[in-house]
Write a structure and sequence with these properties.
This protein is an alpha/beta fold. The chain has helices at residues 5-22, 34-37, 39-54, 66-75, 91-115, 155-162, 186-196, 230-236, 243-255, 271-277, and strands at 26-31, 58-63, 82-83, 86-87, 120-124, 131-135, 147-152, 166-170, 172-175, 181-183, 201-206, 224-225, 260-265, 284-286. The protein contains ten helices and 14 strands. Strand 9 (172-175) and strand 10 form a beta hairpin. The two termini are 35 Å apart.
Amino acid sequence: MSISNAERARILNEALPYIQQFSGKIIVVKYGGNAMISEHLRRAVLSDIVLLHQMGIRVVVVHGGGPEISDMLKKLGKEGRFVNGLRYTDPETMDVVQQVLCGKVNKDLVSLINLYGGKAMGLCGMDGRMIQAVKKAGDGFDYGLVGNITGVNPQAIYDVLAGDYIPVISTVAAGTDGEKCYNINADTAAAEIAAALDAEKLIILTDVLGLMRDVNDPESLISKCPANEVPALVEEGVIQGGMIPKIQCCVDAVKKGVRRAHILDGRIEHSVLIELLTDAGVGTMIY
């Protein structure tokens, strides 16, 4: 569909106050889901990130890589399993997590951002003891080498930002309880990193429109939700299943000082730009 020059001008004019508002601010984007798997969507998201960076917005990318880890385990003849939605991580699986997340996935993203005209630098949570964690325990389940974050040291991220690079962070944490490293849920890591950076926004890309009162009715999308209303929505069953931990990450980030947290549908092309630079926005905002 073609648009007129006047429409192009209107779009740019609408974006201007948002560019001015966010210039120099830190935006943390948790990158995952279909936006990470589909080549078409991957190109759209990463080009959005490059554009925001060139506008003077300080973008930090935090990524997962669940499908890639599962593929590698399958190639090795090892069956993966999950406990309460988290990947059970024995020492052999932890080796694969490190190799895939800190290696292939991270460096592929860095390479693509550079290809699209950006400047990216890969980091993992063990660099500079950026993400510190202890073994996840206390709920009666054994998750293996899955960790709970105990602290975030953002200095390495600030150093990369100061060099005018886009940090691309894989979520393997340094153990502080004797273990060398831990596998960390990427949503949780993104929320903790956003809080440590005093970020303006946390954006979590997922595979749903956002928070909906009726999952079968797109018109029931809740575009704005105060953090203090989340417990009641969980009680009512509006927030359920896999959406509970994602929303809780947003709530935790907001309570720790992040101005706004958003759950966006990464299947929508350029959803990051639509949210940040237009009046309408997209997805669900937690504030």
